[in-house]
Specification:
mainly alpha, 17 helices
Length: 479
């Protein structure tokens, strides 16, 4: 598909087809439910993460409460991040983007809101079960039955809602964000069911587990995140995307290579050499979609310094872009077998994961929410609070990534020299403290963000005159 600047402007200036059909529910009600839920879980996830970080250098902290033991808090922290903050936030972004990219109302706003509330209660129940000791004990599969099964069923309901909207679209051209959304939701039931079936044993179970978990991060979360960034960046800079051709090169290579990356987590394990070789090859090949994304966003962002200075939302988009590129290239480099042997079981892997999870995930989501407030709701948030939010978030991400990167290098060097892990505990102590401080800085930034959002929305609801429901319209895609 090729969309020129002229055709992009034509779409932007055409009258909205969305206004010709009266929706059965308030437009964007589902998107708001998912988005606000994602914000809530983000704060809870980070708070638990800080407690974990403190326990790494002060293990007596909150000692004596079984539910607050590190081994129970960590899986809750992870699952709230994956299925709470990132999944709910970016599904909310999808519920916002799809009607604008298809010029058609969401098939069912009520179904979208209903699935969001069921998702919230199910996630809360699953995490409470983990805290009470009912975890399955398998990484990224800790949520026990029946709560894990319900997540898969809810994604099918979400997919049906979005598919029905896309199938009845009035805009026949499919922008790249829609491709990424479809990539996120189509294969999810397959690898999610496979990963949570618990029908495998031994090394087969480990291989399947990492196939599932890497698709969870790379296909489900990354695809939704990239769809969001691809949607908002051209609107933020008022320019068409640099190259739709390059965007599809990035899309298809991501879809082809990422599903097979999970095997690099079992390198040097008792697995067939072909599993390791295929995984390393796919991991290195991920440089292609990463570079494609880098060139595309770099070309779109070129010459937009004036927008960067005044628009905090755009600044967060670029922060998400840089963190995505950095985390992706870092992952490809860590897949080299010689380097993997030294660093895989160290905090370097933790630094790499959080650069993507916090750097790309948090930055991309808050960029979208600022965009949503300003461009769709026509609200003006506090620029001062947004500036504080941006710089605290940036400092938190850098502090966390650097401290854990150095920590992991010390661990790997000691491991390579044949030293026991205890030999470097005192050397690593200050970096664990730095990790906790970085987490606190990051959380403080997000509290400022939430306060800004609440203040903006509440003020608008009190000051805005009431309008008839029929006067509400939806925005047309500027793609």
């Amino acid at each position: 598909m090729t969309v020129t600047k002229e055709s992009s402007q034509k779409i932007d200036s055409s009258p909205s087809l969305l206004t010709k059909i009266k929706p059965l529910a308030e437009p964007d009600s589902a998107a708001r439910t998912w988005l606000y839920s994602g914000i809530f879980w983000m704060l809870v996830m980070m708070l638990i993460g800080i407690v974990e970080a403190i326990k790494l250098f002060a293990p007596e902290f909150l000692q004596g409460v079984p539910a607050l033991a590190y081994g129970r808090l960590r899986p809750v922290h992870i699952n709230l991040g994956v299925f709470g903050f990132m999944s709910m936030g970016y599904v909310g972004a999808a519920f916002y983007m799809v009607p604008r990219l298809t010029q058609n109302h969401i098939f069912s706003e009520r179904l979208g809101s209903f699935t969001a509330w069921i998702w919230n209660f199910n996630l809360l129940s699953g995490c409470m079960a983990i805290l009470m000791g009912f975890s399955t004990g398998k990484e990224y599969e800790e949520i026990p039955f029946p709560f894990n099964m319900l997540i898969g069923l809810l994604v099918i309901a979400i997919a049906g809602n979005l598919f029905s909207t896309i199938s009845e679209r009035r805009e026949k051209r499919i922008y790249v964000s829609l491709w990424y959304i479809l990539l996120a939701i189509i294969p999810f039931p397959i690898y999610y069911t496979l990963g949570n079936a618990h029908n495998f044993r031994g090394i087969e179970d480990a291989i399947i587990n990492w196939f599932y978990s890497h698709n969870l991060f790379g296909i489900w979360l990354t695809a939704l995140g990239l769809a969001t960034i691809y949607y908002i960046v051209p609107k933020q800079v008022h320019k068409p995307l640099y190259s739709h051709t390059i965007s599809f090169v990035g899309f298809w290579t991501l879809a082809a290579f990422y599903p097979w990356n999970g095997g690099h987590h079992v390198i040097w394990g008792p697995v067939p050499m072909w599993v390791m070789s295929a995984s390393v090859t796919a991991s290195i090949a991920m440089i292609v979609p990463t570079v494609a994304t880098m060139v595309n966003f770099g070309g779109t962002a070129w010459g937009t310094w004036d927008v960067l200075k005044r628009d905090v939302s755009y600044r967060f988009s670029l922060l998400a872009y840089f963190c995505y590129v950095g985390a992706s290239l870092w992952g490809s480099i860590l897949a080299f077998m010689s380097l993997n042997a030294k660093l895989h079981f160290t905090n370097t892997t933790i630094a790499h994961v959080h650069l993507g999870f916090i750097g790309f995930g948090v930055s991309g989501l808050v960029a979208f929410i600022y965009f949503y407030l300003e461009r769709s709701l026509k609200l003006k948030y506090s620029q001062t609070l947004a500036e504080w939010h941006f710089w605290l978030t940036t400092i938190g991400i850098l502090g966390y990534t650097i401290s854990m990167g150095i920590n992991g290098w010390l661990e790997g060097t000691a491991w390579e020299a044949g030293m026991a892990a205890q030999a470097t505990m005192l050397d690593r102590y200050p970096y664990h403290v730095a990790r906790a401080i970085s987490g606190i800085v990051l959380l403080l930034g997000q509290f400022i963000f939430v306060a800004n959002v609440i203040k903006t929305v509440n003020y608008s609801e009190k000051s805005a005159p009431k309008q008839p429901k029929d006067s509400k319209t939806q925005e047309v895609a500027v793609q």
